[in-house]
Amino acid sequence: MGKTLFDKVWDSHVVKKIDKGPDVLFIDRHMVHEVTSPVAFLGLKNRDIKVLFPEKTFATADHNTPTRNQHLPVKDYLSSKQLKALEENAKYHGISYWGLGHEKNGIVHVIGPEHGITLPGATIVCGDSHTSTHGAFGAIAFGIGTSEVEMVLSTQCVMQPKPKKMRININGQLNEAVTPKDVALFIISKLSTSGATGYFVEYSGEVFSSMTMEGRMTVCNLSIEMGARGGMIAPDDKTFNYVRGREFSPKNETWDDAMEYWKTLKSDDDAVFDKEFTFDGSTIEPMITYGTNPGMGISINSGIPSSNQHGGNKETFLKSLEYMDYSEGDKILGKKIDFVFLGSCTNGRIEDFRAFTNIVKGRKKAPNVTAWLVPGSHKVEKAIKDEGLLTILNESGFELREPGCSACLAMNDDKIPPGKYAVSTSNRNFEGRQGPGSRTLLASPIVAAAAAITGKVTDPRYL
In CATH, what number is assigned to the domain containing residue 178? Predict the structure, then answer.
């Protein structure tokens, strides 16, 4: 029986199998940030040990960072303390550290691919659930907890039970204004937020092979939102061309050797998956969420289902609608919004800003909308300026903020006020995720752009 892509990468990294227990898995790349690392580094200090392979560990500041005046001292005491701790720990252990103001600074899952840290066939972990993003390169990438961060720092290994395997096939051609974000939200709406629990997902089919690498990153990023341990897409020429020449990617002879291996990274024809789903890409429309988890999504022209149609827990469903101040059967189209957030590790890349700018060009931001446009890295910020996108955005009434996780989560200054509605390109719409009492509608960059210029939920195809 043939092997799946997941099997090939996982099995090649197993250091030891524990009978009736987890596998000991070697980790090629470990990325750390300021929130989940301080306690892990403290554990090393208490045991008087150093990071085993500092050259395989990369640190950046992103979660707690302000997106304005980053040259000034961080005002929030806890944020400032965590950022300082990461800087000191990285220096002590000889780890690459890209803090505020560093030209390579940005969101951990944006800078990894940008600099060639993310490679096909690698195992990648970070103390952040959306590490699944890196699976777009044919890597096994997943989030870990603080104790596991300490384990990887000290041993370059982690103990993990091997997940089951799922394949999601989508063929056909996507319709106008349907983006990778819509594809991901569509899948989650079909499988629910727990539909892939216990599985590692491989995305396959014409829709994914047609996507750019940045689009694939968006899809893999959201794998965790349907309960999956991670998601991955087999590497191809697009992957190799993206990786080639980046700072930490192989060079010269080692590139040739890597390519020889990378070209084997695909599921064998006779590989067997524990579960498979197949969808028609031509049926997918621009999506938007209406509730308090990413699975509560509908096509933008649809109405909110009734509690009987929803299929989940009725009490939880109605509680979610109460929080959002929506009702069964409501149309989301035309609903007033207050904030728009473009950014995060889901949609903070240059292609997302190009798509957003393409919609708002020649139009003006609605006066009732506050828009936070936050690049995922300084490299993205530079491209926005170099490509002339910033000029167009400014002419339309938008401002560009500095890189960081920003309004994805209420861990920095960028919080949505209580009761306000935000169309967000991020990944989670839980109660209070963007600030206590905030109400989040997840959508693609172009749906966000349409809302930003109309002041309400708008189908971008109308524009």
Answer: 3.30.499.10
